[in-house]
Write a structure and sequence with these properties.
Layout: H1 4-16, H2 19-26, H3 30-44, E1 49-51, E2 56-58, H4 60-86, E3 92-98, H5 100-117, E4 121-127, E5 141-146, E6 155-162, E7 164-168, H6 170-176, E8 190-193, E9 200-206, E10 209-215, E11 220-221, H7 224-232, E12 237-241, H8 242-251, E13 255-257, E14 266-272, H9 280-296
Parallel strand pairs: 3-4, 3-5, 8-11, 8-12
Antiparallel strand pairs: 1-2, 5-14, 6-14, 7-12, 7-13, 9-10
Amino acid sequence: MIDLDHIRIFLAVAEQRSFVAAARQLSMTAPTVTRAVSSLEDQLGIQLLLRTTRHVSLTSAGAVYAARIAPLLDTFQQVNDELREQHGDVAGLIRINAPMSLGQQILPDVASGFRVDYPRTVLSLTLTDRFIDIVSDDYDLAIRISEAPRDKSTIWRKICPVRRIIVASPGYIAAYGLPETPDDLERHSCLAYDERSTGESWELRCEGKSRKIRAGQTIAGNNGELMARLAANGEGIALLPHFIVEEALRGGQLQRLLPDWSPPELWLTLYYPPYERLPMRVAKFSDFFETYVTRTRPL
């Protein structure tokens, strides 16, 4: 009888075009992966892969087999997961995408705590600051910090607002002066935190008044931790989520500026593919995550 794990391993090699990369993805050794694929080929009596010293490619039979067997294996796994869920067993793979800074600070404790409660789940965690297509990129859940959701093609769940504040280092303030109004920011180096690392416009509001400031004339970056470090190094003034700069504020490396002025509200939101019914394992993770960021460690 053919081992389903051998099929999964073969599909990983077919996707990665490499035994080593597939082994890394599966947290296995390369020899184990090689033996599993060879065993599958022996059982089928067909060569599935062409192997050279540098490349791995599919044979014509291997390409047909991969194309036909992958959806069947997905269906098999889905049926198993649904059956377990009907009996209250939370198990299976959860593919999660999150922003870099939030993922590094929050997800380690969330993942460890969730796995204690649900040890039969498998978490695949990917961090990126770019906006992903949750359907085509094949995720079960995407965590995002953005404006209020408007996307009609996905399911979303608003978790909590994410506070942003204006910060700079004491050294920068000593060298260039303390801005007392948003208009003063025009003569300062305002660092842009932007997905494309180009520039951004800060909209600041206070008691019905509004000001717009152009940031990114000196430095722009697409990662919050990077911009916080640059601000702490005295490179300029940054507008960042409080959770990113919280430790630097406590340590005195950064100080808050213009506390009466605030930018438009951002939300921490969970996005899902257009499920007919949210899988229990995904729903349980969502509940666990929400509890952590709203009660255990509020953002």
